[in-house]
Amino acid sequence: MELARERKAHDLTVLDLRGISSATDYFVLASGRSDVQAKAIAEHIVEELGDEGIRAGHVEGLTGGRWVLLDYIDFVVHVFHPQARAFYQLENLWGDAPRWDEPGDGERPGSQHRARPSA
Q1: Cα–Cα distance between 18 and 36 in angstroms, integer?
Q2: Residue 15 CA to chain centroid, in angstroms?
Q3: 3-48 pLDDT, tens per residue?
Q4: Are 98 and 114 in contact (CB under 8 A)?
Q5: Which H or E run includes 42?
Q6: Are 112 and 14 in contact (CB under 8 A)?
Q7: CB-based contact 11:106 (threshold 8 Å)
Q8: In whole angstroms, what is the distance from residue 102 CA to residue 115 CA?
Q9: 60 vs 70: CA distance, rounded Å
Q10: For residue 73, is pLDDT > 50?
Q11: CATH entry, 2-101, from 3.30.460.10, 3.20.20.80, 2.60.40.10, 2.40.50.100
Q12: What pLDDT shows up at residue 102?
């Protein structure tokens, strides 16, 4: 989430899919205020994680920037344009998943803030 914040992402949310889906453990959701910003957020994440030796198994949507999907197997990062995020509503689709919303200027009304589990 820190990498997304570095490019001014808003509405940051983590969905814990362990025990719900065998596809991945976590969804990390972030929004940019435009296609260009969403693309910049996603490119920054790919570059910085790549510098740490962490490579995405699959990347989709980077050219357009409306919805960029970065699949790191154990976690999947979704970076949205606000209209695409509102349309697809992944938070509602995966409504049974525990979630952590980061408070901030992009806070959604009625969002559920939960503390991160301690390790």
Answers
A1: 32
A2: 9
A3: 999 999 999 999 999 999 999 999 999 999 999 999 999 999 999 9
A4: yes
A5: helix 35-51
A6: no
A7: yes
A8: 10
A9: 7
A10: yes
A11: 3.30.460.10
A12: 86
What digits encode the pLDDT tens for the residues 76-108?
999 999 999 999 999 999 999 999 998 765 444
Q: Which of 70, 5, 60 is nearest to 32 (CA)?
A: 5
Residue 117 and residue 119: Cα distance in Å, rounded? 6
Give the integer Cα–Cα distance in Å for 70 and 77. 5
In the chain, where do the E strands start and end? 10-16, 26-31, 58-60, 67-71, 75-80, 99-101
Distance separating alpha carbons of residues 65 and 94, to the nearest angstrom: 22
Q: Could you tell me the residue ranges of all domains in the chain? A: 2-101
